What we know:
Layout (H helix, E strand, L loop, with lengths): L6 E5 L3 H13 L4 E5 L3 H12 L9 E4 L10 E4 L15 H18 L4 E4 L4 H12 L6 E3 L3 H15 L6 E2 L2 E2 L7 E2 L5 E2 L2 E2 H9 L6 H10 L1 H9 L4 H15 L4 E3 L2 E5 L5 E6 L2 E4 L2 E5 L6 H20 L3
Parallel strand pairs: 1-2, 1-4, 2-3, 4-5, 5-6
Antiparallel strand pairs: 7-10, 8-9, 10-11, 12-15, 13-14, 15-16
Helix pairs in contact: 1-2, 1-9, 3-4, 5-7
Amino acid sequence: MKNTNVKISIIGAGFVGSTTAFALMMSGLASNIVIVDINKNKAEGEAMDLSHGVPFVSPIDITAGDYCDTKDSDIVIITAGIGQKPGESRLDVIDKNLAVFKTIVPEIVKYSPNSILLVVSNPVDILSYITYKLSGFPKERVIGSGTVLDTARFRYLLSEHFDIDARNIHTYILGEHGDSEIAAWSLTNIAGMNADEYCDTICKECDGNIKLDIYNNVKNAAYNIIEKKGATYYAVALAIKKIVEAILRNEKSILTVSTYLEGQYGINDLYLGLPSVVGDTGVSKIVDVPLNNEELESLKASAKTLREVLNKANI
């Protein structure tokens, strides 16, 4: 995909959609951003506000419009939907968002049949699957934001504990972007050492509860933020920007996006967050990282949870 004349459409002008538009505007990745929302005044207000900052960034055209204005988008980012409220899980909002997506996805496909679809709305794994089914697109071109943000949270919390740069910590959160997600401790690597080795030889301040505490803080991060300020949007916008960057620059980055499984780890016909190679065609492959028995069983349990939700929703 070319880096010139790149058009990105964002469906949804809420906290996540507008913050994503800002992150993309600052990145210089796109030359044209279109914001679509059922609340046209909100979309127009966001586009106006962002446009007034254009003199400070690389040339870019930011507009609000209808689906027809998204025509020939390279990437369409879906952030629209009903968000979590305090006390709700991501899976609690599935029924509300299913109806929303049945109206959104056909319009996107109509105007941008060659685009890559990036689903961010929650529950992202379920809605990525729904988008894949409704769009008729090849699986490679329907991607969910998956556990990219969760993985970043994991790396950040580990960096705080170890007092080192988060960029030097390599690890993943896998599975559902939600309560059944898995911390891949067996794959966690710091300076060529696994987490236990680093604790024993370098840190020497790891008690028996450190892994559980960090995992719970990752898993519950969104709940805590929603309770304090109503929504999460800054970090997720940066996660979206990273995925878009990997696509447009054909980076072939390994990111834990939500992608379609066809037998990996014994799981079929489901979207889950797994390390995947992301480039200009979307997801080119899933990296079958080796998991220990406990992690593998947890991943299968995560898949079972999502499968039950899909079956209950009759999808």
